[in-house]
Design brief:
The complex is a heterodimer of chains A (about 325) and B (about 350).
Chain A: H1 2-28, H2 33-41, H3 47-57, H4 65-77, H5 92-127, H6 136-145, H7 148-162, H8 182-218, H9 222-229, H10 234-272, H11 277-286, H12 290-318, H13 320-324
Helix pairs in contact in A: 1-12, 5-8, 5-10, 5-12, 6-8, 7-8, 7-10, 8-10, 9-10, 10-11, 10-12, 11-12
Chain B: H1 2-12, H2 16-21, H3 28-50, H4 81-117, H5 119-134, H6 137-147, H7 153-164, H8 166-180, H9 183-190, H10 195-203, H11 208-231, H12 242-251, H13 260-288
Helix pairs in contact in B: 1-3, 3-4, 3-13, 4-5, 4-7, 4-8, 4-11, 5-8, 6-7, 7-11, 8-11, 9-10, 11-12, 11-13, 12-13
Classes of the chains: A mainly alpha (about 325), B mainly alpha (about 350).
Chain lengths: ~325, ~350
């Protein structure tokens, strides 16, 4: 319990740091983003929009940095992330809440698949070190060195343009209205296959390698030798003795690599025009939509923190040592 | 930076004294990696001169597939893709290595001080690196880069370094912690060496492999981030690099037009460079932790028994405390060296072997 509380405190501090970074970035940067925007949009912005922008970027000269900071927090607690430019005058919060479920589903499912599959392959290749499975290592290295988005481009070129098996873009058939019925869900799944496979392929190598290296280290421990000496079946020693201990670092590694995977997923969404949060970020960057960009960053960071907390709880369940300290 | 890697290759064939130190270079993986890297370094230096065309020059050969005139084909405006890639190599490597150097310097500074100083300084510095570790890097890089007006190579490298030092700092801290109380460090302290001298001349040499592996890892991350930034149009697109090529390919619908030659070469170059760097990193990892070596390495002669690592256990009945790594903070550190083989294993050039065994 103490462990969980410690982690909670850590994530609270990290969330605070992320929000503060988000607050500071526009204020520390040289130049005036609002002026630049006004000249870009040439009178398309009305005065209330400019006022709200000035408040968001802290360009109100009469306020001290501290009162800007407290204002920023009070807006944030109300869920007010400002207004998006690209979807003016839709609030940023609304734009994000529409696209967040897509990303959560895509990232969640693909991360789970690649973690389970990668760890499984890692267990086998670490256990049977020196077998043909070692030949997989260079291949996975090569694949993991390919940027997510480029793999996505190739997937589109092959399976959407050349053979036209899967759709090249979008999250569902445009003729359907989003609803929880079978035609919509099956269409969403169908559109999700290519992006999903792309992410799994790119992310799996890290799991295989991490798990393999831990298995190699663990399988020379004394308790593994004892288990074999007791005459336990190969399968039992491999899973209940070696893999069970080797998987722990992989789980805490899961937490650390999540930020990286999310980054890659954002790119896959951009390539596939998938209606998730990464595609929103892409459009926001193109249109210099600063409020939307900052909102997306905040939501991504907070989601990653939440996922990390879950991984930590799983870790506490699996590793009795963390519980004993309480 | 780029030059030092070629220097390393040269020292490989140098006299025996330095050969022992760079023994990890003799593995097949590392060799392959260094060769590929050297090839790209060569391209980075000579690229603009050997490029057959001006990468910006348009011609009337629009969207041509690869031919004898244009090895990698042409773009929609008749630009030569091969020239764009050749000219772009320099930017990719420059930013990658620059960010790698900056981030490594930061991680050494923060990680080693945290591990060595301990106490409140350690608490604060570890907290800082853990925070940067958890905050997703790429979105942060995108946000910072898009707020800046002038996105030159130097600035992109600085932003990437600022967001990617944390992993190295964490691994270095763990490693320093395990070195801090070793006998030889205590001895140096007893003879009255100053703290900074101990850190620089006693602790740091034993961290070389970890620092090197962190550096290579950061370069991989920096290259990918930089190309990503160019691809989504945040970085300066008037400046050629592989990401810029992909940016134009994507924005001109190269996919829908079936112009595979426009985006395949750039991606393959990225993957090749990334693989080369990863291979070098495997070499370093296996040098630090000999158990990770695959059968293709030096241990081919040893017959594998399922589940057992061929380690000469009889030579060392118990693990003697001073010569083994203490696996501090193993959790999460998949890349961090575990325990090296016990002393007496013929092929363990383990890092801290220089310390007096007394």
């Amino acid at each position: 319990m103490k462990y969980i509380l410690q982690r909670l405190a850590f994530y609270a501090v990290t969330a605070w740091a992320a929000i503060t970074i988000n607050f500071l970035i526009p204020r520390l940067m040289p130049g005036d983003p609002v002026e630049a925007l006004m000249s870009r949009y040439q009178g398309q912005l009305d005065t209330t929009a400019i006022a709200s922008l000035k408040a968001l970027f802290g360009l109100d000269e009469h306020q001290s940095l501290w009162s800007q900071y407290t204002d920023y927090w009070s807006h944030l607690i109300d869920g007010d992330l400002g207004l998006s430019f690209t979807f003016f005058p839709t609030p940023v919060g609304e734009v994000i809440s529409q696209s967040l479920p897509w990303t959560l589903a895509l990232v969640g499912i693909t991360t789970l698949i690649s973690f389970l599959l990668g760890t499984g392959i890692g267990v086998y290749s670490g256990w049977r070190r020196g077998s043909w499975l070692d030949g997989l290592l260079p291949v996975t290295t090569f694949i993991s060195a390919i940027p997510y988005f480029w793999l996505g481009l190739i997937a589109i070129a092959l399976f959407a343009v050349k053979w036209q098996i899967f759709p090249a873009a979008g999250g569902y058939d445009n003729s359907l209205v989003p609803a929880f019925d079978w035609p919509f869900i099956s269409s969403a799944l169908y559109h999700g296959v290519l992006p999903g496979v792309t992410i799994v392929l790119s992310a799996i190598a890290g799991w295989i390698l991490g798990m393999r290296n831990m298995m190699v280290t663990v399988s020379s421990e004394d308790y593994v030798m004892v288990a074999q000496a007791k005459g336990l079946s190969e399968r039992r020693v491999m899973f209940s003795y070696a893999a069970r201990n080797a998987v722990l670092p992989n789980i805490s590694g899961f937490a650390l690599s999540l930020g990286f995977i999310v980054g890659g997923t954002l790119l896959v969404e951009m390539v596939f025009s998938y209606p998730g949060i990464g595609y929103q970020l892409f459009q926001a960057v193109g249109a210099k939509d600063y409020p939307l960009m900052q909102g997306v960053f905040l939501i991504i960071t907070l989601s990653v923190l939440a996922a990390n907390l879950l991984a930590d709880m799983a870790y506490a369940l699996l590793d009795p040592r963390t519980r004993k300290e309480a | 930076m780029a030059v030092t890697t070629t220097d390393v290759v040269v020292t490989d064939s140098a006299p025996a004294a330095s050969r022992a130190r760079f023994r990890f270079l003799r593995g097949g993986k590392t060799r392959t990696g260094l060769l590929i890297l050297a090839f790209f370094v060569l391209l980075a230096v000579a690229g603009p001169w050997i490029a057959p065309y001006d990468p910006d020059a348009m011609s009337d050969q629009l969207l041509q597939p690869p031919s004898a005139d244009h090895w990698f084909g042409t773009t929609q405006t008749g630009q030569d893709v091969l020239s764009q890639i050749l000219v772009g190599t320099r930017g990719v490597l420059l930013v990658g290595f620059l960010a790698g150097i900056l981030a490594t310097a930061l991680s050494v500074l923060i990680g080693v001080s945290a591990g060595f100083l301990g106490g409140a300084a350690d608490e604060i510095l570890s907290m800082l690196s853990n925070i940067f570790l958890v905050i997703p890097g790429l979105p942060l890089i995108i946000i910072i880069a898009s707020f800046v007006e002038d996105t030159g190579d130097l600035l992109i490298a600085a932003v990437i370094a600022l967001t990617s030092w944390a992993w190295g700092a964490r691994v270095l801290r763990a490693q320093t912690l395990s070195l801090r109380r070793r006998d030889y460090v205590e001895a140096a302290r007893a003879t009255g060496e100053s703290t900074w001298r101990i850190i620089l001349f006693e602790v740091m040499p034993n961290l070389t492999a970890v620092i090197a592996s962190g550096f290579v890892g950061t370069v991989i991350f920096a290259v990918l981030s930089e190309i990503t930034l160019a691809f989504i149009g945040v970085a300066d697109i008037s400046h050629w690099n592989w990401g810029t090529v992909l940016f134009w390919a994507q924005s001109n619908q190269a996919l829908a037009q079936g112009a595979w030659w426009w985006f395949v070469p750039a991606g393959l170059c990225i993957a090749l460079l990334g693989t080369a760097l990863s291979l070098i990193n495997f070499g370093i990892d296996e040098f630090v932790n000999p158990r990770l070596r695959t059968a293709t390495g030096a241990s081919r002669k040893v017959r594998m028994r399922v589940g057992f690592t061929p380690v000469a256990r009889t030579a060392a009945p118990e693990r003697p405390a001073p010569s083994g790594f203490t696996p501090v903070d193993r959790a999460g550190a998949t890349q961090s060296p575990g325990e090296p083989a016990p002393p007496g294993t013929p092929e363990s050039p383990g890092t801290p072997s220089k310390e007096p065994s007394a």
